[in-house]
């Protein structure tokens, strides 16, 4: 890269958080006059697992999708890997996209391709690798996420919900991304699988130095895997911190979320 | 600039795999960056080393700068190829230990590859599958036809089960909204037939007979057949896509478990709507075709509109018109049944939706032309 975009926003970001791998600044998103997110600020630190919680329909998926550029925003900026995403050339954008892995809420596997081919799509797109190596890598990813190699030749319509999630995670990990976006990764999984999933995410973070941006409702995930939790409500990030911080928060929704019956049961367990 | 700033294009040092000093020492040095960015290079070096099969006892990873799961797999593959355990790779960076351990547990069983069939066997297999497919098609068409008849009979007793709203909705979409394009197309086809006919018949001095040609051709064959082909492409494909995507998203299953009758709710309204709409569209097409022929002859030959109409009256009779229109409901039935049955057979993938939609249009057009031919033979035989 020859010229690094040196913008006021960039310098500002390195002051507030030099470790921030992604910062969202003043994000406003709305659909037909109704605002879903308004002036939202959020920093994701390098190497952390950030959990996003919020009532259904508060815009967690919208936040994730607008960071990825899939939803039009009214205003706001994203600084990703130290670059303002608005001011990127095509090549820089590609280089950044190559470092992102995304697990969509419903998997979004390509229905006409087998699981193996699905995992190989990003590899094919960005690199020229021998087919044998791609097969081995794809099987390796598949087993890393806890699927058996038998699933490799199945098509998405032949998989269960949990298997779809895992296969989609394997695809998201295909290029060993640095920043991983997960939209409700453990919903629809049995508790044991969900726990394995959390362990997997933590392991990947520890070994690969992944940063994880995870939308989740799973209190287990929140307490086991997440370093920090951001609560989304009233169109912005209402509170951010670890479990203990949030439990002390007086806001009624946060209070009932983190000290409700389910949450208490969670504490009894630990 | 910030340290992360300039690393967008960075790919680290190239991966290196080399023997330590003399190859007799049995130690291989692994150094550089072993990540997906440089994986092709790394993989070919591993292949090279495995081909030479030196006696290696140990792997020295001290020069390894960065590693990801892909790079870890290639190193594991090297170890396996050399018949070594993970423990003979030292020193492993503490950050990399669990990564190596996790990757070492993958790819333990050789992948099952589907073996390629011999060309002739594959051909026979495909033929067999196609035959079974045709049998299944016939079965499902017969089933649908029977269900629709029973649905109609039930409708006589309980008119509510006929879903009038739905029928009207589909009539609007398949019929009313198709009127402009059908009229336009028939007008042009009528004009083209008239122009060609006039041009050829002029040589024999039989130009007025072009009116017979236009009248009979448009009313008996072209008007209905072209309309039906247009509707197959327009509404048949829509039926398949609608029902197919409902099938894909389990909406059809949801209806079934709610006790809704798929035939009654989805199929019968479409079939009935089309059976009513297609003859009406055929009527529009006939009229537009005749007008097209008349306008062209008035402009292109010396046949005035009033001559055209008088001559046409002698040339065609009511049976000419009926022969055409009688075919319309049958064609509607073919289009609706085939496209609904293809829709119901859509599988789980986007590709199968596309394939079924194509099949619906192709099959219904082919069958319509076939049926049209049978009707032509039949009417000729009874002298109608
Ligand atoms: N494409 C869209 N068009 C209109 N409204 C949308 C769209 N996507 C999301 N919304 C609305 O935005 C709000 C937030 O949705 P979402 O982010 O999916 O919620 P959740 O937090 O449960 O993931 C919801 O009220 C939803 O109706
Ligand atoms: Mg959501």
UniProtKB/TrEMBL annotation, chain A:
It holds the Pfam family ABC_tran. The keyword Nucleotide-binding applies. Residues 22-259 form the ABC transporter domain. It comes from the Bacteria. GO terms for molecular function: ATP binding; ATP hydrolysis activity. Keywords: ATP-binding, Nucleotide-binding, Transport. PANTHER family: PROTEIN TRIGALACTOSYLDIACYLGLYCEROL 3, CHLOROPLASTIC (PTHR43023:SF3). Belongs to the ABC transporter superfamily. This is Phospholipid/cholesterol/gamma-HCH transport system ATP-binding protein. It comes from Cohaesibacter marisflavi. The lineage of its organism: Bacteria, Pseudomonadati, Pseudomonadota, Alphaproteobacteria, Hyphomicrobiales.
TrEMBL record, chain B:
GO terms for molecular function: phospholipid transporter activity. It comes from the Bacteria. GO terms for cellular component: ATP-binding cassette (ABC) transporter complex. It is a multi-pass membrane protein. The keyword Cell membrane applies. It is found in: Cell inner membrane. Its main location: membrane. Signal peptide: none annotated. The chain crosses the membrane at residues 178-197, 209-233, 283-303, 315-338, 358-382. Keywords: Cell inner membrane, Cell membrane, Membrane, Transmembrane, Transmembrane helix. InterPro entries: ABC_MlaE_roteobac, Permease_MalE, STAS_dom_sf. Could be part of an ABC transporter complex. Belongs to the MlaE permease family. PANTHER family: ABC TRANSPORTER PERMEASE, ABC TRANSPORTER PERMEASE PROTEIN-RELATED. This is Phospholipid/cholesterol/gamma-HCH transport system permease protein.
């Amino acid at each position: 890269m020859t010229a690094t975009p040196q913008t006021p926003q960039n310098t500002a970001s390195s002051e507030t958080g030099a470790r921030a791998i992604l910062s969202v600044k003043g994000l406003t998103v709305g659909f037909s006059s109704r605002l879903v997110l308004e002036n939202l600020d959020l920093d994701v630190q390098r190497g952390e697992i950030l959990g996003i919680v919020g009532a259904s329909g508060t815009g967690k998926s919208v936040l994730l999708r607008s960071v990825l550029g899939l939803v039009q925003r009214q205003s706001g900026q994203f600084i990703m890997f130290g670059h303002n995403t608005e001011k990127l050339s095509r090549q820089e954008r590609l280089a950044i996209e190559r470092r992102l892995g995304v697990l969509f809420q419903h998997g979004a596997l390509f229905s006409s391709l087998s699981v193996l081919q699905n995992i190989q799509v990003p590899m094919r797109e960005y690199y020229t690798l021998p087919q044998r190596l791609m097969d081995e890598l794809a099987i390796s990813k598949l087993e890393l996420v806890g699927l058996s190699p038998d699933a490799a030749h199945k098509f998405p319509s032949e998989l269960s919900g949990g298997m779809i999630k895992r296969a989609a995670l394997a695809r998201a990990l295909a290029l060993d991304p640095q920043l991983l976006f997960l939209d409700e990764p453990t919903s629809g999984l049995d508790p044991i699988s969900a726990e394995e999933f959390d362990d997997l995410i933590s392991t990947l973070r520890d070994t690969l130095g992944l940063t994880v941006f995870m939308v989740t409702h799973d209190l287990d995930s929140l307490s086991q895997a997440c370093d920090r939790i951001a609560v989304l409500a009233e169109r912005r990030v209402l509170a951010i911190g670890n479990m203990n911080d949030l439990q002390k928060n007086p806001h009624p929704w946060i209070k009932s979320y983190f000290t409700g019956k389910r949450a208490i049961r969670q504490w009894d367990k630990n | 600039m910030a340290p992360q700033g300039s690393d967008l294009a960075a790919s680290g040092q190239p991966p290196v795999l080399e023997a330590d000093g003399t190859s007799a020492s049995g130690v291989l040095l692994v150094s550089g960056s072993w990540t997906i960015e440089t994986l092709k290079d790394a993989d070919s070096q591993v292949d090279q080393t495995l081909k030479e099969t030196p006696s290696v006892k140990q792997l020295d990873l001290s020069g390894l700068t960065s590693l990801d799961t892909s790079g870890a797999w290639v190193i594991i593959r090297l170890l396996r190829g050399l018949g070594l355990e993970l423990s003979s790779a030292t020193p492993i960076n503490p950050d990399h230990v669990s990564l190596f351990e996790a990757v070492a547990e993958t790819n333990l069983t050789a992948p099952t590859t589907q073996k390629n069939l011999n060309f002739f066997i594959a051909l026979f297999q495909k033929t067999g599958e196609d035959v079974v497919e045709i049998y299944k098609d016939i079965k499902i068409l017969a089933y649908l036809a029977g269900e629709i008849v029973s649905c109609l009979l039930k409708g006589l007793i309980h008119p509510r089960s006929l879903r009038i709203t739905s029928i009207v909705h589909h009539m609007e979409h398949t019929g009313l909204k198709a009127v402009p394009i059908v009229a336009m197309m028939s007008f042009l086809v009528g004009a083209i037939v008239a122009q060609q006919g006039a041009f050829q018949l002029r040589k024999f001095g039989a130009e007025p007979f072009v009116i017979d040609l236009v009248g009979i051709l448009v009313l008996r064959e072209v008007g209905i057949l072209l309309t039906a082909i247009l509707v197959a492409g327009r509404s048949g494909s829509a039926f398949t896509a609608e029902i197919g995507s409902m099938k894909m998203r389990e909406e059809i299953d949801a209806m079934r478990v709610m006790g809704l009758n798929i035939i009654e709710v989805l199929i019968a309204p479409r079939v009935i709507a089309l059976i009513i709409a297609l003859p009406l569209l055929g009527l529009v097409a006939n009229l537009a075709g005749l007008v097209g022929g008349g306008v062209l002859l008035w402009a292109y030959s010396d046949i005035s509109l009033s001559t055209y109409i008088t001559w046409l009256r002698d040339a065609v009779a009511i049976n000419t018109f009926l022969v055409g229109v009688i075919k319309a409901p049958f064609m509607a039935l073919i289009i609706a049944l085939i496209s609904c049955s293809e829709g119901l057979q859509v599988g789980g993938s986007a590709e199968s939706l596309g394939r079924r939609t194509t099949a619906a249009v192709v099959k219904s057009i082919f069958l319509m032309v076939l049926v049209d031919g049978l009707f032509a033979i039949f009417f000729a035989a009874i002298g109608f």
